[in-house]
Give the backbone structure.
Amino acid sequence: MKLLALDTATEACSVALYVDGEISQRYRLAPREHSHLILQMLDDCLAEAELKLSQLDALAFGRGPGSFMGLRIAAGVVQGISLAQDLPIVPVSTLASIAHIQMQQRGAMRVLAAIDARMAEVYWGAFINNNGLPVLQGQEMVLPPEQVPIPDTEGWSGAGTGWGSYADLLVRRLGDHVSTSQAEVFPSAASIAELAVVGLASGEQGVAAAQAIPVYLRDQVAKKAASR
């Protein structure tokens, strides 16, 4: 399996190449520079592995939620490659990527992933660790931090920029249900590649370019874009 993954949903910009179990990645925290960095990162990953786009089996990207413009950059790049090379695309949740990283790096068993959505809101998702993989509990949502769902159990770990921007509100809301939190956790192409490969191996089907669309969660943003 040879899979190329991209993520530009948050302040982090990354490209990863999965080749038969090995992952190489280019990663930078570079707000507002994604459009200038992503193609060079892509070229560097392929050159390092001495691969061409025609040799890939699939693509993956961070489908959101996240920055409106950022999501469009990654989606546009993978759509273009997919059309040119006839490759399937695996959209992967950026919240799931954050939870996956928290599980890998800190051994978390329950993760409340939160991305700062601006406008005094967070993109939110609760994930359980199933053999190292994040399993979504309920649904992903966007809402004010003082309204996030309170889990039925304790021992949750918070991760993502939402925990940096709204730590006080989230701690006040969740209390003892959260034992620790890390704000500097961003989705990454390496994590997205790994989750995409697992999905494909379990029978998930990649989608065509036309179906590889961002998940914004905030309906009014998508509606405004559609009207434009």
User: Anything to note?
Assistant: DSSP finds seven helices and ten strands in the chain. The CA atoms of residues 14 and 27 lie 4 Å apart. The chain has two domains: 2-93+187-227, 95-182. The first strand starts at residue 2 and ends at 7.
